[in-house]
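Sample 1 of the test manifest.
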Amino acid sequence: DIQMTQSPSTLSASVGDRVIMTCRASQSISSWLAWYQQKPGKAPKLLVYKASNLERGVPSRFTGSGSGTEFTLTISGLQPDDFATYYCHQYNSLFPWTFGQGTRVDIK
Amino acid sequence: QVTLRESGPVLVKPTETLTLTCTVSGFSLSDDEVGVSWIRQPPGKALEWLAHIFSNDAKSYATAVETRVTISKDSSNRQVVLTMTNLDPVDTGTYYCARTSHYGDYRYDYWGQGTLVTVSS
């Protein structure tokens, strides 16, 4: 299966900061990658799909980029509601799908 | 309004078989492009994708569980069922079902609230 490696595992930041997290695939997945936000006790919420497409209703401060094996999620101007764990998910139809191990964004 | 709701036992003994049901509303499992996955999350750990059933009834499984897991659907009853055999305490976690609705672009646009399953004797 394709391994998805997220870094960092934990990111400490302040409100207003620009934060960048990375997801690396063990082999090319083209652009078949989504990013989800999860808060404690809740189901994940879709933020970005096909690497760079913002889901309807998601604030524009979230930006996804990348293709192949390297992907990033950027939050420009971190808001109090953004403190959560973020997961990448590869869904290339040629392989079983997999999630990364998550990046937790907490308050500095 | 699209909703998914997971149901099943809260406590299961090791070596037993787990059967979880995802009941959907607001859409049909017979719709073209609609699929449903099962995803789990051990306490305090990451999400783990388990299985997916496509609109044409094709199925895909994670390699780590493919010998123990079966996914199926009953469109008339709006249900997707996950069966997992030979349970172990490491299978403890919250189990989610989630919907995909775009052919070829399998992002999850709706999730259930999850159901916690504990495997213990």
